[in-house]
Structures are given as C-alpha cells and as structure tokens.
Design brief:
- Strands 1-2 form a two-stranded parallel ribbon.
- The longest helix has 20 residues.
- The protein has 4 helices and 2 strands.
- Helices cover 44% and strands 10% of the residues.
- It has one domain.
C-alpha cells in the first residue's frame, strides 16, 4: 500500500475510531426484558465500528451517556482495513439518510480521504 493511501486510511480510521478514556459506568448492560435504567453504558467494539455503534445507541437511548472503549486488537493499515473503513463510512452516510442514527456531518478531510480510498476497495462488506 503506497504512503498516500496509508495516510488517507489513517485519517478515515481515526475518524471512525472514537476513543474516550474508559470510565466507571453505573451499568454496562442493556437488553430487552430487563428493567434497568442505566445512566452510563460502555460500548466495546472494534475500533472501526466505534462511531456507528455510538451514534446508533445514542439515537435509540438519548438519555444515556455512552462511553466508547475500543476492543484491544492489533491494528494493521492494510487492504482489509481499507475495505472495512470505506464500507463503514458508506454505512454511516446511508444510515444517516434513513434516520437510523444520529445525524452525521462529515468533515471535509474525511470526505476527501473517503473519495480517494473508495476506488481502491477490493472486498465489499
């Protein structure tokens, strides 16, 4: 992968990978059938899925403070990550239009990096 592609991928990945410092939560479990009223919930997911997870939960349960805690995994800026990140941005755009998640306003540099990376996608997810 050339340097310009790696730099664009890093820009998109950093946008997707929200990483708040983990904090103590009042409750960390939400499930249908449980009568919990948590004030804070920790979201643990792969780093590239953090933003979509957060905006989905925040839309569904607006009164809860969601804390992002990326799963501990080795990050490789490779073709698979490029494919995943481009697909993730496409989902964010699509789900925003459908109203399924909190409205997303994408910074100009994110859209430019996404447009640069999109033709380099090899695998559709």
């Amino acid at each position: 992968m050339d340097t310009k592609t790696q730099e664009a991928l890093k820009i998109v990945f950093d946008y997707l990978a929200i990483s708040d410092e983990p904090q103590k939560a009042d409750a960390i479990f939400l499930a249908t059938g449980f009568s919990l009223s948590p004030k804070k919930v920790i979201i643990v997911d792969r780093p590239e899925h953090q933003r979509r997870g957060w905006v989905t939960f925040a839309k569904q349960w607006p009164g809860i403070d969601f804390i992002n805690c990326p799963a501990d995994e080795e990050l490789k800026y490779d073709q698979k990550m490029l494919d995943l990140c481009v697909a993730e941005l496409e989902r964010l755009k699509r789900y925003t239009k459908k109203g399924n998640i909190l409205e997303q306003k994408f910074p100009k540099e994110i859209l430019l990096a996404w447009k640069f990376l999109k033709p380099k996608v090899e695998t559709r997810f």
